[in-house]
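Recall that a protein's primary structure is simply its ordered list of amino acids. Everything else, from secondary elements to tertiary packing, is in principle encoded there. The following example makes that idea concrete.
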Amino acid sequence: MKFYGWLLLCTCLVVFGCTKPEIDEVMLATQFQDGQQAINNAAALEAESLVPEEYGRAVKLMSFARNSQEASDIPQSYEFAYQAELVALITIAKARQHHAKQKVVSIREQLYQQAIKIQEYELEIERIRQAITEEQFARALRSGDKSQQQIEQLSAELADLSTKLRQAELRAPIAGLALLVNITVDIYPAIKETADYERVQAVVASITKFIEQKAFPDAEDATTDAQTLVNNLYQLAVQKREAEVTAKTNAQIAIAQVEVIIQRAQILNANQHAPKQLQEASSQLQRAKQALEVNRYEQARQSAQQARQSADEAVATAEVREYRQRAQQELDTLIARARRAIEGLGEKIAAQAETQVPQLEAKLYELANSAYEKSQSAFAAKEYDNAIKAAAEGDDYLQRAMAGAERVTSAKSDLLLAAKRISNAAVTQQRDSILIRISGNAFAYGSTQIRPEFIDTFAQLAKVLRTAGFSKYPVRIEAHTSSLGNARVNQSVSMGRADSIKRFLTTDGRVDAGRITAVGLGETRPIVEDGPDKEEKNRRIDVIIKTN
C-alpha cells in the first residue's frame, strides 16, 4: 500500500513540475530523535547481546536514514528512521522478556538452594542426636553398674531416633518438591486449576501419610513418582508462562507499532486528509490497550492489528494528499522566488547600463548579462531552481562589477592623489596597491633612528594612512640598504629601520599597528644593478598600501 501511495505521489509531483517532495525539517528531526531514543533505550537493556539480530537491524536502518539525508533523499531518510524506531521497539520488548526470564530463574534457584540447606541442617541434627544416643547406649552396655531398665530405655530411645531419622531423610526430598510446587505456582498461578496440580497434591499428601505410618518403602516409591510429576508440572508451568509472556510481548509490540504509525499519520495531518481512518485506528488502539490491561493478550493483539490496518490506510491517504499539497505550495513559492530574482536582476542591470560600470568592469558586467539570459531560459523551461541560481550568480557578478568600479573611481584615485602630496616620496599606482617610495638619506649611515628632516615625511604618511577612506588598508614597510658593508649588518640595520618607521607611525602617527607589517630586506632587492648612483637609489624605504 505504501508503494502505491508513493507512486501516486511521484505522479502528482511530475504533473505539478517538481521532481521530489521535501518533508518538513521538523518532521524529519522529530523522527530521527524518536528512532535514536528507541535505540538508546534498547541498548540500556543490553539488547545488543540479548537480541543482537533485531538491535543490529535497528542500528543499520538508522545509518541508512543518515546516509539518505546526506544524499538529500529526505523522504527515504524519513522512511528509514521510521522503520528503525519500529524495529527498536520490538527489540526493547524482547530484551525485557529476556530479563524477566533471567530474574525468575535466579529467584527460583536461590529459593530452592535455601530450602535444601534447611532440610540438610535438620537432617544433620537428627543424625547427631542418634549418634549421641548410640554412644550412651554403648557406654551403658560396657558399664556393669547400669540397670537393665536403663538399658532398655536407651534401646527404646535409639529405636525411636532411628525411626525419626528415617522419617527426616524421607521428608527432605518432599520439602524440596513442595518448594518446587510453590515456585511453579508463582511462575504460573493458573496451574492450580489443572488436573496435573491436583494429582501432585494428592501424591505429596500420600507420601506424608506413608511417612507418618512408617511405611517407608511405600514412601520411597511414591517419592520417585512424585518427583516425575512435579518436574512435569514445573515444565508445564514454564511453557504456559513463556507462552503468556510471548503473547503479552506480541500484544505490546503490536500496540507500540500502531502508536508510532498513528503519530506519523498525525504529523501528515491525517485528521484533515483521512479523519475516518484515523478515528477508527485510535478507537481500535484504545480497545487493544483495554484488553491488555485485563490480560486478554490475543484480543489485544488482534485489536492492535486492526488498528494498524486503519492507521496504514490513514498514512497512505495522508501521504499523497499532504505531500501533494506541500509540493504545490513549495512549487508556488519557488516560482515566485524565481520570478522576483529574475526581475530584480534585470532592473539592476538596466540601472547600471548608463554608468561607468560597463566600461570599467566590462567582463563582470557581461557575465551578469549572460547569467540574466540564462535565468530567463531556465524559468521558461520550468527549471526554477536553476533560474534562481543563475539570477544569484548574475547579481553576484553585477555587485562585484559595481564594487570594482567604485574602488577604481573613488578610493584608489583618492589615495593616489593624497600620497602624491607626501614630501620626499615618489608614488606609483600598481594593479592592487599603491607604492610610496621614500628616497634619500632618511637614516644616517648605519643608524636606525629617523633623521629629523624626514620626520615630516613620515608624519604626512601617517596622516594619509589615517584618512577614513584608507584607514583599513594593509600596509607593508620594506627597508632596503645599499650593498656597501657587511650583508648581515645591512640586513639587521634594515630591519631596525623598518621597525623604527612602524614605531613612529603607530605611536606619533596613531596608525593601527595591526595593519602594518615591517620587513628589513637589506641589500637583497636592488632596483639598480649598475651606475655611479646605484647605492644611493638602492638605499630606500618602500611603503606598499594594499587597495584590494
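The longest strand covers residues 433-439. The chain has a mean pLDDT of 82.
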